[in-house]
Amino acid sequence: MGYDIERFVGYVNEGLLCSICRDVLEDPLQAPCEHAFCTACIHGWLVHHSNCPEDRQVIDVSLLRPLYRYMKNDLNRLQLHCRNREYGCEMVCSLESIDRHERECEYSQIPCSNAGCSVQIERRNLDGHLAVCEYRSRECPNGCGYTILSAEDTQHNCVAELRTELELLRSEMICRVEEAKHEMESRLDSQRRHMVQKESILQNEIEELKSQMSRMMSDVRSLMAAERQHRQELEQAELEKREL
């Protein structure tokens, strides 16, 4: 929906009105046929139609483009009243700056910032309301440190509140201790499995080394036997040589 034309000061060119809602263009888009629309209006229209609402030419969302610059400039220069005029705001400013003004307008109706309070109040009166709001919170004057609402003043009991807080802390501590215990057990179990795995690997390596050592000893014995045989053959050859 566009800006209500009744808010504007002076004449508004027909070309700056939305072809669907007939109010002044808000966040405008333009079709290839040069008819202009509010973004929300034309998107809603194209959900159920596939043509321009003015001349019935076929259009698609992909064909929509921003407003021509000169039209955009004319639109931004229009002067209009703040939407809070009915509450007393007399500000008149350009369409280009109206949103910024209304975000900060002292006559804007804003919700109370206290949780549970449903009051809507003018921004300029917010501080006064917060000072008396029944949902305002403050620290207990007796020094227990508990934050209480004004409506709970008569029911507040420091001892009961502190006891409740203590129970909550105790429960939280027990939960954390249990979590730490489970985490530690999980880590120990993981380390235990890792150690068992490493022990198995080391045992296999030891067995492999023993096997290699056994093969080496067997080879050494074979070499020593061959050397003895060779020495005996040499001695026999030496005797035969002497006899000859």
TrEMBL record:
Domain of life: Eukaryota
Domain RING-type residues, every copy: 18-56
Keyword Zinc: yes
GO biological process: regulation of canonical NF-kappaB signal transduction
InterPro entries for this protein: Znf_RING, Znf_RING/FYVE/PHD, Znf_RING_CS, Znf_TRAF
Coiled coil feature spans: 192-243
PROSITE patterns documented for this protein: ZF_RING_1 (PS00518), ZF_RING_2 (PS50089), ZF_TRAF (PS50145)
Pfam families: zf-C3HC4_2, zf-TRAF
Protein name: RNF41 ligase
Species this protein is from: Falcunculus frontatus (Eastern shriketit)
